[in-house]
Amino acid sequence: MSDIWQRSSNILLMVFATSIIWMIFGTVKALVFFNLALLWTVFHHIRHLVMLERWLQLSDHTPASIPAGSGVWDDVFAHLARYVRQHSQSQELLSLALKRMQSVTSAMPDGIVILDESDRIEWCNPIAEQHLGIDLLMDAGQQITYLVRQMPFVEYLAARQYSNPLILKQTRMQNLIISLQLVPYGFNQKLLISRDITRFEKIETMRRDFIANVSHELRTPLTVIGGFLETLSSSENLNPEFTQRALVLMTEQTTRMQHLIEDLLILSRLENEQNKVKEKKVDVVRLLHGILQDAESINAGCHHIKLNITSQDQLLGSEEELRSAFGNLISNAIRYTPDDGEICINWEKRNGQGLFFVQDSGIGIEPEHIPRLTERFYRVDSSRSRETGGTGLGLAIVKHVLNRHDAHLEVTSEVGKGSRFAILFPSKRLISEDGINAESK
Q1: 101, part of any domain
Q2: 236 and 344 share one domain
């Protein structure tokens, strides 16, 4: 039997019963029975409609909350329960997919903001909250330009030319540079992707400064050499004294450029992560005696240099790199100490650590300069450094050598009284006279 006949069976039965009563008891009783049966049918449907309306008004539509029906309404409520069950399952799958998407986007290093067709915030991940200074709980539904008010961003959003990203330097987070990229998708919706490029901008700035500094450092000696060569090549009768002086100055400038290139090559090698430290036992006492001889030959008796050694401990590391670090500190002391000044070179063991320091009676360094001493080409006194042959890379080399040897540099200085450059080596780098690592004792 079809669904139509199943749904009409009660009416057909009622009509059939009314016909029987009409033939037996007459028209009046048949009409009374028909009206009562019809009234009961209407009441039955109204009662179930009221039950359905009350269920629709509930906030939680679950299959268990669907009322029990009778007759044709039993089938209706059964179909409704099946639909609600399928809908609940679909919602659970969508909720799970949404949670997964939020988990994935939250783990991303980039910030993501979903904007609607009116540029209002629909959702964002925690990284975007940090980059843009917004709070999803408080700012959902707000115009993005109410929160990110920088004019370049407002103009970028209004122009609707999203092929190139926008670099934003003035954000709510100080010292943060972010790249913003809008990606249209869906129906007039947009993804706003933010990326922290502070580190890359700093690297780019360092690259530009490095090129500018190297160019500046090479320009002076090349100008001197070029000027003398032009004079020597254009003049027929040259004064021998002038020629000799020109050759001396050109040799000095050539040596200066050679030192600069050598220091740049050393820095490049130290910064190469693939170039690991070739560790071996370094006899610090023998190393310092060799450096002292080199320093005295350079010093030519202008200063009083003393070597104080109170420990025979050796170091685990690269002798070549340690020689470069110690030598740079000693040559700096010679360079910035007036004639007849004192320079003390010390090697000792203190609190289980290896301590090397150079103490001089030189011109000293003002406190504001000390944090920047290890920057490339940073000079407290540029003219004096160039006069004494400094490349501006010595302390940068020292910093990289110490990083590779788990050591750190401490600088104390007083203007007019001198400076103290100290290197502290951890106990794991020390090897005692009997060949036992100090940390393992």
Answers
A1: no
A2: no
The model's pLDDT over 394-428, given as tens digits with 9 standing for 90+, comes to 888 889 999 988 999 999 998 888 999 999 999 88
**What is the spatial order of strands in the sheet that 189-196 belongs to?**
121-124, 111-115, 189-196, 178-185, 166-168
Question: In terms of domains, do 302 and 431 share one?
Answer: yes
Max alpha carbon distance in the chain (Å)? 155
Please give the C-alpha separations between residue 316 and each of 308, 345, 347, in angstroms, as whole numbers: 21, 20, 15
Judgement on whether residues 295 and 257 belong to the same structural domain of the protein:
no
Do residue 291 and residue 427 come from a single domain? yes
128 lies in the same domain as 267: no
Domain match, 127 and 182 both: yes
Placement of tokens 């740049």 in the chain: 264
Query: Which residue type sits at 204?
Result: E
Q: How far is the CA of 319 from the CAs of 119, 307, 439, in angstroms?
A: 62, 19, 21
| pLDDT for the residue 307 | 92
What's CA 182's distance to the chain center, in Å? 21
SS3 189: strand
Residue 39 lies in a domain: yes
Give the span between the Cα atoms of 185 and 191, in whole angstroms.
7
Contact between 220 and 147 under an 8 Å Cβ cutoff? The reply is no
Q: Is residue 170 part of a domain?
A: yes
Express each pLDDT in 53-75 by its tens digit: 888 887 777 777 778 877 778 77
- CA-CA-CA-CA dihedral for 200, 202, 203, 204, to nearest 10: 90
The terminus-to-terminus CA distance of the chain in angstroms comes to 96
Strand partners, 115: 121, 190
Compute the CA torsion angle 130, 134, 138, 143 (nearest 10 deg).
Answer: -150
Residues 209 and 179 grouped into a single domain: no
